[in-house]
Design a protein that fits this description.
Structural class: alpha+beta
Helix content: 10-25%
Order of helices and strands: EHHEEEEEEHHE
Mean pLDDT: 93
Strand content: 35-45%
Number of helices: 4
Number of strands: 8
Low-confidence stretches: none
Oligomer: single chain
């Protein structure tokens, strides 16, 4: 049995506070997304995400659709994760790496999904891992540097 998680880690030339500020602003998520699926934040979203926040996004994967997320993990400047109705999570973990740099790990975790085998059948883990790599490249580029990446999970 797999862990039902895929992760990629990179180092970004920014502080955890700077990165967390970006992650907790849902209006910035389309700028950050490397998968091409996150199109726009809904009007009426909170300005800043915190534990329990609900926020909506316009998405596109083939056809356009809307999704509503809930923040389910939160530790200021260190961790944020959200999930939607199927229960899988997108998690961001931030660790100071010295000299104004941060180790950033993004994880797609479908261990909490209601129907995990459908996620596997649709090959979302591999697709999402590729999207995570592109997202982390975008994040590093936003702060003027491409990070070095390592991958985890299957």
């Amino acid at each position: 049995m797999t862990r039902r998680q895929v992760s990629v880690t990179t180092t970004v030339a920014a502080s955890p506070e700077q990165i967390f500020d970006l992650l907790t602003d849902p209006a910035k998520h389309p700028l950050l997304d490397g998968s091409g699926t996150v199109q726009a934040a809904h009007a009426g979203n909170p300005d800043r995400l915190e534990l329990g926040s609900k926020f909506g996004m316009d998405m596109k994967m083939g056809a356009p659709y809307k999704i509503r997320n809930t923040v389910v993990e939160y530790e200021k400047n260190r961790l944020i994760a959200w999930r939607h109705f199927n229960g899988h999570r997108w998690r961001w973990e931030l660790e100071p790496a010295g000299e104004g740099r941060t180790s950033v790990t993004e994880t797609f975790d479908w261990s909490t999904a209601r129907i995990p085998f459908l996620i596997e059948l649709a090959r979302f883990p591999a697709k999402n891992k590729a999207g995570i790599r592109k997202t982390l490249d975008r994040l590093a580029g936003m702060f003027g540097e491409n990070g070095s990446q390592s991958s985890q999970g299957s």
